[in-house]
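Blackboard transcription, Thursday session:
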Amino acid sequence: MKNKIAVQVDDLTVAYNYKPVLWDIDLEIPEGVLMAIVGPNGAGKSTLIKSILGILKPIAGSVAIYGKPYDKQRSLVAYVPQKGSVDWDFPTTALDVVMMGTYGSLGWIKRPGQKEKKAALEALEKVGMLSFKNRQISQLSGGQQQRIFLARALVQNASIYFMDEPFQGVDATTEIAIINILKELRKAGKTVIVVHHDLQTVPEYFDWVTFLNVKKIATGPVKDIFNDDNLTKTYGINYKVVVSD
Amino acid sequence: MSSAQLEIQLIASLVAIACAIPGTFLVLRKMAMISDAISHSILPGIVIGFFITQDLNSPVLILLAALTGIITVVLVEYIQKTGLVKEDTAIGLVFPALFSIGVILIAKNANDIHLDVDAVLLGELAFAPFDRLLVSGVDLGPKSLWIIGTILLITITLLIAFFKELKVSTFDAGLASALGFSPMVIHYGLMTVSSVTTVGAFDAVGAILVVALMIAPAASAYLITNNLKRMLAYAICFGVISAVSGYWLAHWLDASIAGSITSVLGILFLTIYLFAPNKGIIAILYREKQQRTEVSLLTFLLHLKNHTDETERHVNHLNEHINWQKVRSKTVLDLALKNNMIRIENKIVSLTEKGNDFTTQAIDYIITNEDSQIEGMKDDFFLFRG
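(Written on the board underneath:)
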């Protein structure tokens, strides 16, 4: 049913200090899916996203976004890093962080103006954070910070969204609010790729899944491949024990 | 005030502004120590540059010395990347090595050049007005003023042009990279500006004061604002205030100008550290005391809510029961009364409607941890201000 390929990864190998953390990954992500990347700690989930976005340089392999290198397709892609990757004591406001999402389309030197501000306010509205726009970012709760990050990605108005553990350290209400926005994005034909930790919620939240543990174990529709067999291959023999915990 | 005095203050102020701008970003990037490293390890660059140009104010010398600054940064990053030592150790390894090369070079050639280690460490601002820039016999003012003025102009131009890039790459390097603003380019751009500024300021104020002027104003500004532009503005103000008042302190004490400016910076930081409205030590202690009282208040209200039995709510009983000192019980009781949360009839305490609502809301918040429920309460109570 889906044939256009949004993201294509070929033979991707990434190493830190000559130790491969991703080994020979081939991956095709069809347009319009809401996909989870699952795997144990150290499986290379964040590394995969960062390599696709050119933040890390792979030692081998290539990545294509709608058939072209990432450099040429930046405007089609939005990225939500892990919440813990930034210093929330940075002297700035929620609105200003969301405005950063517009910097990509502005390019070097040009400054954001009224149009960008309006887009940022709309994005804040969408994630239910408009009343917090002037709040200093360290004064926000973990869930609110995650919503700000999501708003910053929404303001980019991209076709493909990469999110690194957006549910980490957020309360249940925020988790539901976020997943609803992601589902809306998919409904609008966008492709959403999420590094995800909670295996229980995979079938409920996502329609596509990739199992990763240094190598790619499997990728495809959740209903076809989200099973004990793949989970065991990815997480090792103790998978069932892990889940019952 | 003589024109020499005015010139010294002007030079010191321009140096302070030129240092505060990169300093603000170094502080936000938690790279304060790298400025210390740069300020020391440019010494061999200055000495070698001096051998070549025979002029302490030559642009070639400045560029050569700035290059040594960049080499320092590259070496520190290289050593750090091996994973064998941490960043602070790498800094501690690199700059003494480079600095000592400079010291030896000076010592070996001490007879030939007018550079000595004292002047390098502390600078000699008092002599700056003697070295004039003469163009076909016309006196255009002290050379130092022109050098630092030019550097400041370049710094301000770069800051205005790349403010957004600096901000995003400092806050979130990953996003900056994904958006196409290479954090690497911005990082080395900032390092170059820091190095050039350090060299330009070095002759006037010396290696130690350069670090103080980069870090102390920015660190002070960080404590009193939550806005990057304001942080830059405050850092610049603090730098200039310290430069001018430091000069007059030195004048009055008949002491080193560089030393006096640095002392003023230290005192300024200490004052802000103690008295800053939100992040200052006194504000923090006050807030903690308030929070303790408010937790007590909540405990007390909850006790009243949970016990309908009158003996449990008798004033004297409350004293023993919650196990607080008399003074504390009285504070809490007064606070509750003042906010109309309780009423006392015949020494029996009971919750008012307001007190009841407040307790329910507060408990809801503590259980669900949902911020939306308590937005209205935040203004009245410290406890809920995160």
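Lecturer's comment: Confidence is low (pLDDT under 50) at residues 241-245 of chain A.
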